[in-house]
Specification:
Structural class: mainly alpha
Largest sheet: 2 strands, antiparallel
Helix content: 55-70%
Strand content: 5-15%
Number of strands: 2
Radius of gyration: 19 Å
Strand order of the largest sheet: 1-2
Number of helices: 5
Distance between the termini: 50 Å
Order of helices and strands: HHHHEEH
Length: 119
């Protein structure tokens, strides 16, 4: 019986680690959250987004936009105009990140206070 409990506990721990790794893969890194915040702030076109994020390159932005789109966090709309325009918007699903982001913001602010208290 004890062996079964230990195996179940190990399985749940591995599932927890996997879920956190998946979250970090989708929204982690240097650029994904700033891109989401830029679009949330009203920057919908590629050049608006790139101009709003210091030091991001066109190549990196392009790659990250594709990643966010593949993970259903943003949608890409081609507007048949002259010239053709492409706009990016957040999906409703992306807005579910708010809970995660709020926790990260709170932790980050507390961490800064902790570190400043040490110095």
């Amino acid at each position: 019986m004890e062996e079964g409990k230990a195996a179940n506990k190990e399985k749940k721990f591995k599932e927890k680690i996997k879920a956190i790794q998946d979250t970090m893969f989708v929204i982690g890194g240097k650029w994904k959250v700033p891109i989401i915040l830029s679009i949330y702030s009203g920057n919908k076109r590629f050049n608006e987004i790139v101009a709003s994020i210091p030091d991001i390159t066109n190549r990196v932005l392009s790659k990250e936009l594709k990643h966010l789109e593949n993970n259903l966090l943003i949608s890409r709309t081609v507007i048949d105009d002259y010239p053709v325009r492409v706009e990016y918007t957040l999906t409703d699903y992306c807005l579910s990140i708010n809970e995660v982001a709020a926790s990260m913001e709170k932790w980050g602010k507390n961490h800064i206070k902790k570190i400043k208290g040490k110095l």
